[in-house]
Amino acid sequence: MSELRPSESRLSEPRLSEPRLSEPRAFDPTARSPIAPAPPVIVLAGWQVSGRRASADTAGGTGLTITDCTPLAKLQLRAPADGQAAAALGVRFGRAARDPAGTLVVGSGPGEWLLLAPPGQAPDLDTRAASIAEHAPGEHVTWVDLSHGRALMRLTGSPAASVLARVCGIDLSDEITPDGAAFRTSVASLATDIVRDDVSGARSYLLHCERSSGDYLFSALLRAGADFGIEIDGFRLPPANRPLGI
User: Reduced to 3 states, what is the DSSP secondary structure of residue 72?
Assistant: First the structure.
């Protein structure tokens, strides 16, 4: 048997490939909701959203629409429930109201508020929160930007309460939960913040949940509203006279 020479081997050794320079990839700053947008897909205010439009009758409030509103700026603020910061916000627990700037201030819990504003206004909300904290010396005021960390959707139309009744045990009558009511409950077995925020006289609810559960909740509402002819209405930039209207 012949001996192997030092330069020989029974198994060929793998050769290292020549290093390749990776081609530069364009940076994509587009934000995406956890809710898959219904086609056609467009980019609006830096967010990938659905460009679908509901029929005129449905969009007018006589039918039923659902809209992914995740692009709205969201800020959660916590402070003593009876302190100076709470007084500056001016909204008590269980209620929601717009301030002069059009921001929807939601009393989402005891000593807890959710501020909603048009897309891209998270820095303005942060500045406002800092000002509130500055004018509340001695109070422990904290806030966090939830714009990309939570999902938000709007259910609008006369059958909206009937749809929610299928997945939620709260009394949604006008006497118990009128326009401007805010509460946290289970919706389709998911902890959800609900705000009744009627649009141009049409019954409408905002539903706010963890980002990871957004697509599940959106799909659950679509199933619950199927018998009512629910339609997806894509996100639009809010009009100037109603900053959070859809």
Answer: coil
To which CATH superfamily is domain 73-146 assigned? Aminomethyltransferase beta-barrel domains (3.30.70.1400)
**Pair 108, 206: CB distance under 8 Å:** no
Residue appearing with tokens 């900053």:
243
Beta strands in 25-135 (DSSP E): 31-32, 41-44, 47-50, 65-68, 73-78, 96-98, 104-109, 112-117
Q: Could you read off the pLDDT of 64-90 as tens digits, one per residue?
A: 999 999 999 999 999 999 999 999 999
Strands 65-68 and 73-78: unpaired
Please report the DSSP string for 203-242 in residue order. Answer: -EEEEEEEGGGHHHHHHHHHHHTGGGT-EE----PPPTTS
**Structural fold of domain 36-72+150-236:** Gyrase A; domain 2 (3.30.1360)
pTM above 0.90, yes or no: no
DSSP secondary structure letter of residue 167: T
Q: Where in the chain is the domain with CATH 3.30.1360.120?
A: 36-72+150-236
Q: How far is CA 94 from CA 113, 181, 198, 244, in A?
A: 10, 6, 16, 19
